[in-house]
Design goal:
Layout: E1 11-17, H1 28-42, E2 46-53, E3 57-64, H2 68-89, E4 102-104, H3 109-127, H4 139-143, H5 152-158, H6 162-169, H7 174-179
Antiparallel strand pairs: 1-3, 1-4, 2-3
Protein name: Transposase IS200-like domain-containing protein
GO molecular function, one term: transposase activity
Organism: Flavobacterium cellulosilyticum
């Protein structure tokens, strides 16, 4: 699979999973640390439009604020820092993620909206959980009044406002898992 070249000011679906589908998060602390490291290494280099951390994979919807080389290096540093800490915690060695993080560039606004929906609905489709309550998804950040690092105003505008954002998430979205299978 040829990797999509990352371009400044473009949107991407960034995702990866554990080697052979292994767990990349064993507990909530791992997921919290992953988000902390994401912020530490990438906060000023990307804008986050959505994320979801599942036990054996993760999804990010981002826009690049810097050139490809800077962002790619920051992602490498971020993922390496997470893997080192994870491996040390569970007394493990070696690679944790599949070779390279995958990236797909949405080709239009409609695809970007469907991608955000897909990412937020991941807990429902993979685990049968209520996506609205899932702690390690950015959905909560969009519906709360708390200060957040996700691009809340921009995403809500993309969906036509807060009410429509919620409405779109609560529709029967089975087509998302059929048409947009990213794992």
């Amino acid at each position: 699979m040829k990797l999509e070249v990352l371009e400044k000011d473009s949107y991407y679906h960034i995702y990866n999973r554990g080697i052979n589908g292994c767990l990349i998060f064993e507990n909530d602390e791992n997921k919290s640390f992953f988000l902390k490291q994401l912020s530490k290494y990438l906060y000023d280099k990307i804008s986050i439009f959505g994320y979801c951390l599942m036990d054996n994979h993760f999804h990010l919807v981002i826009r690049l604020n810097e050139e490809e080389q800077i962002v790619t290096q920051a992602f490498s540093n971020f993922l390496n820092s997470y893997v080192k800490a994870f491996n040390k915690e569970i007394d493990r060695t070696g690679s944790l993620f599949e070779k390279h993080f995958k990236r797909i560039k949405p080709n239009d606004e409609k695809y970007l909206k469907q991608l955000i929906l897909y990412v937020h609905l991941n807990p429902k489709h993979h685990l049968g959980l209520k996506f609205e309550d899932y702690k390690y998804s950015s959905y909560q950040a969009f519906i709360s009044n708390k200060v957040t690092k996700v691009e809340k105003d921009e995403v809500l505008k993309l969906f036509g406002g807060f009410e429509n954002f919620i409405f779109c998430h609560n529709q029967k979205n089975d087509f998302l898992t059929e048409k947009y299978t990213f794992e």
